């Protein structure tokens, strides 16, 4: 094929974003610094375990056990709501399309997990959306890698703005929770935050990170294509 038709063909391909849809990963919460990295509330009993994460010896992870009968540890929910936490931001601009996390369930109760995303900094302000497809991690499960899609069309609005994209553009907090009966309920009769089940269960977590698809630019694709072409014809 002559050079000009090749360039025309490549310029045509550049108009299809799928060409560049190569996912990358965000920075990871791996707990290797020995802290909870902002997961959980101060009143919850979150334990940092120094050995036995997915990579084995020396792989630090978190364990949270809900008790199912009352107090701050009654519910199976792990909030990320510290002021200025690392997961605040504009997920649309950052190209976040999902999250990946390693989970183990050494407890006696199946975990039915949803990831919920909020745009407010307090319990009752802002909007909340939720993933719609629960991920079940059965009782007794060892480490398993799970994913949540957070593309706007795959999210359910729990409260507030009817357009999930607006919540994704202004994220202030997350809540990872187990809800065996379907989409999470909200506290305060519907005006509060997504709640996990009141249940005796155990969640172990490591390597929480976002799946990122950088926004493609036609210029970058054309430049990349021409570099490839130059290598082929030289
Ligand atoms: Ca780790």
Average pLDDT works out at 88
Note the main sheet.
Answer: 6 strands, antiparallel
Q: Mind telling me which CATH architecture this is?
A: Sandwich
- Total helix count? 4
Q: Output the CATH homologous superfamily.
A: Galactose-binding domain-like
Low-confidence stretches are 1-20
CATH class value: Mainly Beta
Helix content: 10-25%
Terminal Cα separation, in Å?
14 Å
Shape, principal axes of CA atoms? globular
Organism: Botrimarina hoheduenensis
Protein name: PEP-CTERM protein-sorting domain-containing protein
Keywords: Signal
Signal peptide: 1-22
Description of the molecule:
It is globular and about 40 Å long. The protein has one domain: Sandwich (Jelly Rolls). The chain contains 4 helices and 14 strands. Strand 12 and strand 13 form a beta hairpin. The protein is an alpha+beta fold and 234 residues long. The site of calcium ion (CA) has 8 residues, from loops. It comes from Botrimarina hoheduenensis. Keywords: Signal. This is PEP-CTERM protein-sorting domain-containing protein.
């Amino acid at each position: 094929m002559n050079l000009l038709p090749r360039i025309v063909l490549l310029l045509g391909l550049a108009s299809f974003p799928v060409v560049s849809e190569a996912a990358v990963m965000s920075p990871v919460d791996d707990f290797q610094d020995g802290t909870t990295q902002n997961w959980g509330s101060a009143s919850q009993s979150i334990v940092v375990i120094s050995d036995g994460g997915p990579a084995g010896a020396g792989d630090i992870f978190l364990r949270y056990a809900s008790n199912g009968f009352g107090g701050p540890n009654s519910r199976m929910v792990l909030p990320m709501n510290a002021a200025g936490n690392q997961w605040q931001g504009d997920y649309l601009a950052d190209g976040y399309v999902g999250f990946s996390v390693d989970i183990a369930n050494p407890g006696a109760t199946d975990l039915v997990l949803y990831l919920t995303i909020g745009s407010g900094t307090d319990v009752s302000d802002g909007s909340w959306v939720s993933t719609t497809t629960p991920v079940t991690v059965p009782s007794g499960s060892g480490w398993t890698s799970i994913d949540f899609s957070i593309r706007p069309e795959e999210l359910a609005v729990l409260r507030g703005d009817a357009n999930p994209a607006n919540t994704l553009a202004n994220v202030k907090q997350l809540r990872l929770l187990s809800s065996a009966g379907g989409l999470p309920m909200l506290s305060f009769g519907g005006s509060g935050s997504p709640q996990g089940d009141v249940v005796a269960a155990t969640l172990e977590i490591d390597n929480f990170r976002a799946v990122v698809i950088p926004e493609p630019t036609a210029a970058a694709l054309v430049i990349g294509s021409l570099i490839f072409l130059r290598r082929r014809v030289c």
